[in-house]
Amino acid sequence: MTTQQYLEENRDRFLEELKALIRIPSISTAPEHKQDTHHCAVQVQEYLVRAGLDRAKLYPTAGHPIVYGEKHLSDDLPTVLIYGHYDVQPADPLDEWDTPPFEPTIRKTEHHPDGAIFARGATDDKGQMFIHVKAVEAMIQTGNLPCNVKFMIEGEEEIGSPNLIPFITEHKEMLSSDVILISDTSLLSKDHPSITVGLRGLTYLDVKVRSARADMHSGLFGGAVANPINVLCDMIASLKDENKHITIPGFYDDVQFPSERDRQLMRDAPFDAQEYMDSPGVFGLEGEKGYTTYERTGILPTLDVNGIWGGFTGEGSKTVIPAVANAKISMRLVSNQDHEKITQLFSDHFKSIAPETVKVEVKPHHGGNPYVTPTDTAEYRAAADAVKKTFGREPVPMYEGGSIPIVAKFKEVLGVESILMGFGFDTDGLHSPNEHFGLWNFYKGIETVPEFFQAYSRMKDGV
Amino acid sequence: MTTQQYLEENRDRFLEELKALIRIPSISTAPEHKQDTHHCAVQVQEYLVRAGLDRAKLYPTAGHPIVYGEKHLSDDLPTVLIYGHYDVQPADPLDEWDTPPFEPTIRKTEHHPDGAIFARGATDDKGQMFIHVKAVEAMIQTGNLPCNVKFMIEGEEEIGSPNLIPFITEHKEMLSSDVILISDTSLLSKDHPSITVGLRGLTYLDVKVRSARADMHSGLFGGAVANPINVLCDMIASLKDENKHITIPGFYDDVQFPSERDRQLMRDAPFDAQEYMDSPGVFGLEGEKGYTTYERTGILPTLDVNGIWGGFTGEGSKTVIPAVANAKISMRLVSNQDHEKITQLFSDHFKSIAPETVKVEVKPHHGGNPYVTPTDTAEYRAAADAVKKTFGREPVPMYEGGSIPIVAKFKEVLGVESILMGFGFDTDGLHSPNEHFGLWNFYKGIETVPEFFQAYSRMKDGV
């Protein structure tokens, strides 16, 4: 039986198994879902066993466990290490979901005429991770696995992978490989496949502005004391100029743009502004002057407030001047920017612009460095060939806006490049209500991955 | 017997009667205290009868009753209308009271070496309102009342006086008077008496900025779409210039400053910055350039954000670009500013400064107009003379930061100016745990009010 025949025969079972995995609310940031998250890891382990891997076990960490598995055929064959994650983002706001976030339901959409699974984690990353589990199962069960394979599926990607770096540092030998394969990014479209070659890094901080010990009455104190909310708004507003250029001194020092050729390829790639805007129903596009949307999300760094709170936020009115105001601020980083350096630059600058009437605290959360995949390697060519074969068109090398901070760490600690072969769409509602993953995409992924294994093994054999 | 002799002889009884009134928990906002609040109104009515008023009755309203009473001597004499309230704020947080809020106890404090009554409502406004009841009793019982007097004591001041405007509109004739006398404000200090001549108005609005239908992933959309929190911060920051001057066009059109003489009197008044800052533990004073603290809270309008919220505000990090951000914004108004006009100016301006990538909603809450007592009138001169006689020093005409919206309505509906002759201190803990009212202040008030009646009657007679 060929791998493709096996895939055909097991389509329905694959989908049911994925739905079972999605039903587990493995929200890694929520302490109340700790048991669910662990349960999800055990479930992934069982699927790896079922796929035919020789070793499949949970590695406990200080947080959620890492699921590892491998199939070793020969020391003479190359080794592909597959990385993914089984944890998901929180599902709130719950009332914006058309169906409950952990009850996967299939519905058709404009982009998914064959149907899509609606659920938290459907595309990020359970569906995409599961593609590899099932593709490898098909190769093993039909005797067509052409090289060694390893799986490393973590449960803390959505909270910054705090325990993965200690893990890979400790298990370098076990994780030795020739290439790392990851599906946690997007395709341009069915007709215009793409491979992600750039990921942005991330710096994320909590800031607190305090002007007094206790809240104040706006009649007695209004006009004569610093209102920490107004101060915080002033400070945040000053972080960008009128062209949306970030004003933190030194912020752009380590930014290098891709070659003019690569920028041109991205400019030539189809971009449907309306479609891009439709998924979150965004009212308009804007950004730094002089750049396309792909460039704004791919090769430029950003600064966004992810949350803000302070004072009276209930129904009605309360004439209070609060003592404190808070915000969560993150920056997406590109090319050679270093997240620790940027954290320091931000922190120093933010404190320096505070008026004397307030005290400012800056507390960094997790961060990560950007990553760029070289495109002149055997693994990139193999990936491009596999995609060309199943999609019928050469993929565009895309710089994307998201962050998978661990990819830069893989290069740093394991010395291995990553191939980012994603199968979802940007319009799939990642991290948002009504997240979904197309059935076409799911099956196309399972079909493409074995082609990569074949092409890569051939190329490495030829080298 | 002179009025002052009567006051001397009845000091202890006055205090016991006030304590009895304070023991009634007349919390107007609490449905479970509806009977208590009614009982308190009946008690006030009985004290008015005891004072010797001819008519003293309760007027029922849709909420708590209004207590009315009058002593009519002659159509040829002027009439003083006394306004006050018998309802009080809730007492929570209860565990911050040193003694139970409705069991009045006398303790000495730094500002009250002769002792103060600690209880909810002690100064706001039972103690201050009772000053007038006892002063009028003394004048009537000694045959020294020099003019007509009316009392209007309401039970809904702490919930915005919803039924008082219909009442005064309906009973204009009954309430006809030459001046309204109110004790619901503060003195600077024992050594520096003051009369409040300015109250700020208020405009309070909810604003909402939306850039999309649903929340977005900051990786996919960061840099290419409007972040409503950043936009809201930009918009709020732009509402004041670098000197803290409000930038809304037309905002200051109806602002008139007091005479240079009155401003100089305020500048000369003692101001203890440390004491002012200590109560909320504020780190520093700031405000519009070129003004003192008294001027910033008294004669300048303000714009403060009372609450702000949007995006992810839980523990940890979420890389979301929210669809919506919200704020509660209020403006304290002065002199001739009209709260409805300012609401419109704010709303128009706020919408006009929004970028095209967002939609803005502005929802007004309640509002009220500022009030300024003219200082070149018989009634103000009478009040200043009375205070000078009993305190031994000319009072400072003070512009205060708080709002008593009903005072502007008295002018509008009844056509009569108000004299705001308060006897408490700002440090007496109004609306807070351990509210108290000094015994010295209580008796000094009872001594001062008859002097006002005498001086006012003489001046009106002389006109």
From TrEMBL, chains A, B:
A Pfam family: Peptidase_M20
Sequence ranges assigned to domain Peptidase M20 dimerisation in this UniProt record: 200-357
GO biological-process terms attached to the record: proteolysis
Single Gene Ontology MF annotation: metal ion binding
Keywords: Hydrolase, Metal-binding, Protease
Record PANTHER family: BETA-ALA-HIS DIPEPTIDASE, SUCCINYL-DIAMINOPIMELATE DESUCCINYLASE
Annotated protein name in UniProt: Peptidase dimerization domain protein
Organism field: Neolewinella marina
